Amino acid sequence: MHDLHLIHTDLKLENILLVSQEYLKGSSRSPKDSSYCKRVPKSSAIKVIDFGSTTYDKKDQSYIVSTRHYRAPEVILGLGWSYPCDIWSVGCILVELCSGEALFQTHENLEHLAMMERVLGQLPQHKLKKAHVEKSRDYEVIDCHVTNCIHLLRNVESCRWEVYWFEDVSSTD
């Protein structure tokens, strides 16, 4: 898809379908629970659906994209976006497939950014300084106080993963 210069902008678990409905039956989780039968797809082939928000890489990229739980930090901060926002969404999908739960279950921008920091480490200061005020009436404003709010919310103990923030969302590299 990216080879065609397309950015999906709404990748989420609901927009990824298995090609085949066939599956293999496996054994139960435990010998005591014989009623449970594990189903494993015969094929891992998938189809991506819902291209209603798809855009070309040269279009205006200053508006909000992606479903909240799969939204990249550069989108929340109003820094513009490109192909990496799809890659971020894929990462969130993979975590959800492995854990059974969405990684970032929130409906607030500041809380979302704080959750990202708990998982990935501190947000890059140079990105926070470039954060734009969100003009959309559907989302709360991110202003010059974002850093202070995130520092207040950062005091929750959690594990850190070896993941690096996207340094540049430009597709011209």
In short:
This protein is α+β, with helices and mostly antiparallel strands and 173 residues long. Helix content is 26%, strand content 9%.
SSE layout:
Blueprint: E1 6-7, E2 16-18, E3 23-25, E4 39-41, E5 46-48, E6 55-56, H1 73-76, H2 84-99, H3 109-120, H4 125-129, H5 146-153
Antiparallel strand pairs: 1-6, 2-5, 3-4
Helix pairs in contact: 3-5
InterPro entries: CLK_kinases, Kinase-like_dom_sf, Prot_kinase_dom, Ser/Thr_kinase_AS
GO cellular component, one term: nucleus
Protein name: Serine/threonine-protein kinase afc2
Terminal-residue CA separation: 18 Å
Anisotropy-based shape: flat
Please, what is the CATH homologous superfamily of the domain at 2-7 and 52-153? Transferase(Phosphotransferase) domain 1
Topology, number of strands: 6
| Corresponding CATH architecture of the domain at 2-7 and 52-153 | Orthogonal Bundle
Judged by helices, strands and strand pairing, the structural class is: alpha+beta
Q: Strands of the largest sheet, in order across it?
A: 1-6
The chain-level mean pLDDT equals 77
- Spans where pLDDT lies below 50 across 5 or more residues: 133-173
* Series of secondary-structure elements, N-terminal to C-terminal: EEEEEEHHHHH
CATH fold field value of the domain at 2-7 and 52-153? Transferase(Phosphotransferase), domain 1
CATH class of the domain at 2-7 and 52-153: Mainly Alpha
Oligomeric assembly: single chain
Fraction in helix: 25-40%
Percent of sequence in beta strands: 5-15%
Radius of gyration using CA atoms only: 19 Å
GO molecular function, one term: ATP binding
InterPro entries: CLK_kinases, Kinase-like_dom_sf, Prot_kinase_dom, Ser/Thr_kinase_AS
Protein name: Serine/threonine-protein kinase afc2
Pfam family, one: Pkinase
